[in-house]
Protein 1
Amino acid sequence: MKTKRMSTLALSSVLALSFMLTACGSESNNNNTSSNTNGSTNTNKGNGNAAAAGGENKNADDAANAAANQPSTAENDPVTLKFISWKNGAYNQLYDMFHKKYPWITIEEVPVNGQPVMQVIAALEAAGTPADVTEIDTDLISFDQGGLVEDLTPYIDSSPIFQETTLPQGFFDTMTYKNKKLAVPMVDVPMWVLVNKDLLAKHGVDMPGNDWTYDDFRDIAKQITDPDAGEYGVTTQPEIQMRLLSTKAIADGHASNLQYMNEDLTQSVMSTPGVMDDIKWLHEFVTKDGSMQSNAAAEASGNVTKDFLNGKTGFAIGGDWVLPDLKKKAQFNWDVLPFPKGTSSQPGYSIYGPLSLLAGSKHKNEAFLWLSFQFTKEAQKWKIDQGANASVIDPELTAYYDQAPIWQGKNIEAVKIAQKNAKIQPGVTVPAWGDYNWNNILNDVIFGDRNINDVIPETEAWNKKTKELQASTGAAQ
């Protein structure tokens, strides 16, 4: 495990890689990897390797004390951790909670301000003020190859917080590369089907139950569509294709993972007959049912049906990011439902936002306290209050959904089902993920006029590329 600051050569490599990423663009939180649901559990067991968790300037006793969250007197000197984040103050309450628990540690948020995270890291290194922790905006493979992030395995194995915490099965699959745990989730971002209950009631349709099906979704969307009133069953939004269609493929047994990936995340099954049928199914909402507008039709009618908040559509996909506006601005009665049931299962959809300990940090033990703090009950409850999922399996946290102010008066059981059934969006540890054109091509097919058969050569080309990279880097796991 790296404990020294990056060398000049490594820093130069990071800068070069940063400029490359700027040209290519970053994919933010959309690239995460997992093949497991949050339904079953496992408990982390430590290996007692406390000394391995210490920096090279700390002795073994200091490292053991830090791992036990009982730092020595020397470690109680004031420490300021630089945390690279694009949340722009959204975590301020969480920073205060952490400071109250560890009074000698202060979190200084370093805003990204639209820059690639790697550039921010490199600039701070060059200035002699290295950052300690960062949210990740691209694939973790690049951060690992640049020598930027620590392997968290020895820290996690020595942490009483992790040892005493029950986590979902496959919890670290999204963040593990070549047997190294490179990150933990800063937040588990859930998604639900948003429902305009007023529009349903206007057409005499009852709110569906939480065990509703994809057939129910389609039938209701048709029932509540009234083009003369400018009302449609489904919002014309990329999220419908990105989230719902990908989840349906799993629900019907046509894919093992989100984004049409196979079981071990080595190949795409997007061009297989089952998934192609799923694509045709959603496309028919536009071409046959008329319950969802194409992009061109939506634009011609003033783009009203592209925003669920306008109240002109019955269903949309949303996550925690939509809740503030819905609470403040919606002029209609809205609620949430879990993703529908398919013929095989009822999976949900979730995104892990990776949080990594930087190799250049001068305060690694304190920085890991910030990472491990995310999995305490107080931090988990705060995140539930913001609309996020609990990342920890605990009856107290499950019960807390009923108390969270943000969900009062809403379908709380749907929120719990979405958390329990969630599949995690893949990407951060899949080679050539940025070249996988699953999203743009399906938007063009569903909402535009692109031929569905274009999916086949696109998928074959990417499968060949990622397979070659897996072989050359030994990335296949």
Protein 2
Amino acid sequence: MNEWSYTVKIWAIRKREGRKHAFQLRWKVGTRPHSESFLTLGLAESRRAQLITASREGEPFDVESGLPKSMIVKTRDLSWYQHARNYIEMKWTDSPASTRRTLAEAMATVTPALVKDTKGMPDARTVRTALYSWAFNKNRWEEEPPADVARTLDWFKRKSLPTSALSDRLRVRAALNALSRKLDGKTAAAGTISRKRAIFHNALEYAIEAELLTENPLTRIKWKAPEKVDEEVDPACVPDPKQAGKLLAGVREQSARGRHQAAFFGCMYYAAARPAEVIGLRLSDCDLPRRGWGVLRLHDTWPRSGSSWTDSGEAHEKSGLKHRPRKTVRPVPIPPELVAMLRWHVTAYSTAPDGRLFRTSRGGLIQDTGYGEVWAEARRRALTAAQLGTALAKRPYDLRHAAVSTWLSSGVEPQLVAKRAGHSVAVLFRVYAKFLTDGDEAANAKISARLQGPQG
């Protein structure tokens, strides 16, 4: 580890007659003296100016070598390509598969902008495949890549800028502009840009820890994303209770696969559960009384990230609830309608050997492609021709939005809605803001009644 000091004294250059390198620069860092000899006076003055500038700008100096931090960084420099791989390796072990994919996507987007020149760079799609699927996927580092991928990665090893070059603000601005674009050159979604920028920022912070940079250049750049992040749910996507009922009926009326998945979609609508939370739901997680309300205890998610990104080699990876500590359990009261659906499902299909309620014909986890097909057919059966061309209930996830909006419009306190949906209250207000205005008239009436006071 380096010992740093801000106490620096630099003397004038002295000439020592009779020596080849006659011009000697002497300075002291802390109590440690240092010297360096040069062939010409100009070279000595240049180095002295570097040291004086670093000292005046408040840089710490390494006591052992006597050099300012910026010069130490350059002696340890790595290419951005290698640093990005080091960053991926550092994050890999403690990151779920879905996060690994997000990290790789960010690095694959920004790395092509951080090269010395673009002469000989392969086409954008080849570059994206090589970087995303190979360079920044640690699970494949021991595999032999295809020839075109190997050539592409060799090109980046040769052409990648040194990480220290990111002290140049224009280089960093180019990287920011790159992460705001999709592969086809169009502007990426605001949320995607925000996530990638955050990862890029974190990778630069890691460069500071590795002493490849002295400060994070992003803090010195005034850069605005092409569009503001809008997290609010669009009401046009959310089915009302009558439409949701028709959609669930459209699921049941299909083949045996549809009937098997009816309660799966029911959990999204009646319990506001995320699809990944329902996939691994077990009978032991459910209280299903013969009458009245029941309870689901949600504590796992099974997001599908792809087998090449998980440690197990399986497409899905088990993890805790989203944005919650690993052992958090979220109890959600469920109405008699869902209790009846789940009781019927257990009677008709029993459970998998591990107690899971929903499974494929081979006993595996339900795939998003499979239930996506069922949902698409349910829309065709339940919606009018005009509605089919809109965003109404376009995704199964819109059932969760429908559940939350129904709770809010029913007058359930936002704090309780947030708790059942697995949100913070702040996120609930931000995401479902448009649904919180439905009660304005009732609220206004209550305020008016209070202002008028008792009539006497």
Protein 3
Amino acid sequence: MTTTNIDLSASFKAYDVRGIVGETITTEIVQAIGAAFVDVLELAGQTVLVGGDMRPSSPEFCAAFAKGATARGADVKLLNLISTDELYFACGSLKAAGAMFTASHNPAEYNGIKMAKAGAIPVSSETGLTEIRGLSEKYLAGGIPTIGSTGSISEHDVLRDYAEYLRNLVDLTGSRPLKVVVDAGNGMAGLTTPAVLGGRLLPALPFEIVPLYFELDGTFPNHPANPLEPANLRDLQAAVVAHGADIGLAFDGDADRCFVIDEKGDPVSPSAITALVARREIARAKAGSAVHAPETTPVIIHNLITSRAVPELVTADGGHPVRTRVGHSFIKAQMASEGAVFGGEHSAHYYFRDFFNADTGMLAAMHVLAALGEQDGPLSELGREYEPYVSSGEVNSKVTDVPAAVARVRSAYGRDGVTIDELDGLTFTADNGDWWFNLRASNTEPYLRLNAEALDAATMESVRDDVIALVRQP
């Protein structure tokens, strides 16, 4: 198909570019985007970092992006096979803008681009992505203009530096021996895990790593690299029990998210991980470091879907919790504006001030390993401390009239004894503290997303089922 018939709005999303290879994302489109990236961000004469994941189309897309970028005067460093958080590390440590070719957890036929400015500042529709799309369309229609001096292309490997940087943030050398099953899902964690947690590039840690699907294969022959779906955790859960492991870790395709399984094979919720890591980061911030002076009340960011245990534990530990909307652009903006030390989301994205305010699943995993390795009890006992409430998980309902469904819920729950806020969708909270739930409309599909939490299972199930019945009412 010809690119002149392609509407780039189909692949340009709010935070990245994502489309079907050969249809809504092609080498010609990518080359135009590379040129527009340099022009919009005024990067001529500067270094641009380009890398990609293990999808079959990533190498050719990296080359096409580099061709477009150098045509407009940027010098490109090809990072080749990397995880998304490796790109963020490179953009932060090398102080250069960059592009990562990945479609994260999407199926094999997809690919996309995550872009960042120097310092790992994300490029979104509000910070340049819309302008990049417009200029890309112009270049596709009329060609990419050349300049007198095109840029150069070289290669640069960041894996060792990335691994050393993370090891310096969390000291795991004193951990008790742990058996750790890691499901890479044939994604980039198959490359980063041996480098960071194993002994491939650095001295070995006291861990026995049991690898699951470490072969880099963008066709995902074993299961989709999307651990948010419970079905994709089953192999890991079974392996943890079969091997008598202490913990299981599951990464998504580009390895920027990490999910945790305890020794019984049960998932540890991202909210519990957020609270656990927050506790450790508050302690670090209060102690101070060579980079940061000691802080009396470190700030922790959490989105409004995380368990209320998160702000309660943060406050109890002397931190200051800040609640924000769902979405990494909001979290990263709040991280920067608040000077927060850490941020967590219910979707298993974890953000660190010491990692350029960017998200990294590997660093979160290292904190969990450190917490587990510092004490003798199993992860199931450690995790219970951070999960005092019962949550529904996200329940999606496809409805034909979203406003009407929301109105029914507001009418039923807009009563005395219930507080409603509209930070992101509608959040209803019982004044007696027994329960809360959030109802949000999807930005792209006719879905309503429900998350509920209560003091006990019976209350949670009652609220959840009542709201679902209202939402799905014919």
